[in-house]
Amino acid sequence: MATNLNKLVLATMVVAALLQGSWAQTTHLVGDALGWTIPPGGPIAYSTWASKNTFTVGDVLVFNFASSSHDVAEVAKAAFDACNSTNPISISTTGPTNITLTTAGEHHFICTFPGHCTAGQKLAINVTAAATSPSPPPSSSVKTYVVGESLGWNVLPNGTEAYKAWAADKTFLIGDTLVFNFVNGSHNVAEVTKAAYSACNTTTTISLTTTSPARITLTTVGEHFFTCTFPSHCTLGQQLAINVTGTTTAPSPPPTTAAPAPSPTATPPPTTATPAPSPTATPPPTTAAPTPSPAATPPPASTPTATPPPSTATPPPSPSPSGNTTPSTPPPSETTTAPPPPNSATSLASAALPVALLSIAVALLH
Ligand SMILES: *[C@@H]1O[C@H](CO)[C@@H](O)[C@H](O)[C@H]1NC(C)=O
Ligand SMILES: *[C@@H]1O[C@H](CO)[C@@H](O)[C@H](O)[C@H]1NC(C)=O
Ligand SMILES: *[C@@H]1O[C@H](CO)[C@@H](O)[C@H](O)[C@H]1NC(C)=O
Ligand SMILES: *[C@@H]1O[C@H](CO)[C@@H](O)[C@H](O)[C@H]1NC(C)=O
Ligand SMILES: *[C@@H]1O[C@H](CO)[C@@H](O)[C@H](O)[C@H]1NC(C)=O
Ligand SMILES: *[C@@H]1O[C@H](CO)[C@@H](O)[C@H](O)[C@H]1NC(C)=O
Ligand SMILES: *[C@@H]1O[C@H](CO)[C@@H](O)[C@H](O)[C@H]1NC(C)=O
């Protein structure tokens, strides 16, 4: 029995290692820039932060706090709900504290300083076992971004810098949604022009949302500017500026899917020439861009050698390869409803992977 158990543990480790590619242990800085403190926006700060993270056994939580001002205790769910710190599972009084997640399931953390937990210094997370969660395939679908993560949408000591840093490593595409979390009645979200943003003149706004969470879907390419119209909040740094750089690759094919052969007479489809691998928000540095308009229309393809839309490898639909003078004959129209997903083969492969790993595990057991 004992040796079988050892083999099972070994097999589990092999499976886990193979599934993860390596011992991918993630370190999570609790609350990110906020740290472990009484959050300005209440308990939603840490639940929002938690919802943006995936926790796996072996990961490390770093609670960053000043030792004499806070502590961190792991508690049972009932104690978490009641903010009862009488009987914690563990407690650490020196910050920063690193806590390694050793078991799957729910974990609850609070600060035991009087009033801190009830004011929102509490964190609940779900930890998944390492082997059971193969990461989902990278989808090219639209994203939802929580502005400032756990900082919420607030007046912060270094607000402008914090929101600048938050936006700096993100690529915003049409269809993505920004979520602004704030306390109702204390803030709002206004989209404004660049001039209004720079001058913090909120007399006229493009849009105004007064209830939290404010969800704003990005519908146009170019710069977007957001601020709060409460007096002096803008000048205190409650400002966010972003660049929307293009559309996602997946969702809607061009109106007529019949990609014509590269004949120079045919009007080229308006391909969104977003260079996918660049993580920064630089626009395509094409040399022959005819009109670099920053407006909502994506740049048209300039050369007749423009690549067809990068959807699926659809062969040229015309049965006659010779001079097809009518460029946009609609295809038999069955492909528009359900194009074959480009990753069907890979998802099949990833489905087969656990089976292979299971057989490894079974083999090790015998
Ligand atoms: C903003 O201030 C917080 C502390 O209040 C700090 O952790 C964070 O790094 C700062 N961010 C920037 C971009 O300066
Ligand atoms: C806090 O929890 C302890 C048990 O851990 C219990 O004895 C006590 O009554 C609880 N206090 C409150 C105020 O519920
Ligand atoms: C806690 O984790 C951080 C980030 O990985 C690391 O830099 C630091 O040395 C760790 N501290 C301790 C006491 O292990
Ligand atoms: C953890 O996951 C379970 C099942 O999905 C769910 O019922 C529970 O609310 C989650 N807990 C937390 C803290 O997210
Ligand atoms: C603010 O902008 C409005 C137009 O939206 C303009 O009429 C007003 O003069 C501006 N105020 C200041 C102080 O510049
Ligand atoms: C803000 O107010 C709206 C409408 O009354 C409500 O649905 C929402 O839950 C409130 N949000 C917060 C964070 O209190
Ligand atoms: C958007 O991109 C342009 C061109 O790279 C740049 O000049 C501008 O500063 C960016 N604006 C924001 C808000 O990031």
UniProtKB/TrEMBL annotation:
A Pfam family for this UniProt protein?
A: Cu_bind_like
Q: Where is this region: Disordered?
A: 245-347
Signal sequence region:
1-24
What are the UniProt keywords, alphabetically?
Glycoprotein, Metal-binding, Signal
Coiled-coil-forming residues are: none
Molecular-function annotations in GO = electron transfer activity; metal ion binding
Residue ranges of every copy of the Phytocyanin domain listed in the record: 26-129, 143-246
Q: Where is the composition biased (Pro residues)?
A: 251-320, 328-343
Q: Which GO terms describe its cellular component?
A: plasma membrane
Q: What is this protein called?
A: Phytocyanin domain-containing protein
Source organism of this protein record: Actinidia rufa
Please spell out the taxonomic lineage of the organism that makes this protein: Eukaryota, Viridiplantae, Streptophyta, Embryophyta, Tracheophyta
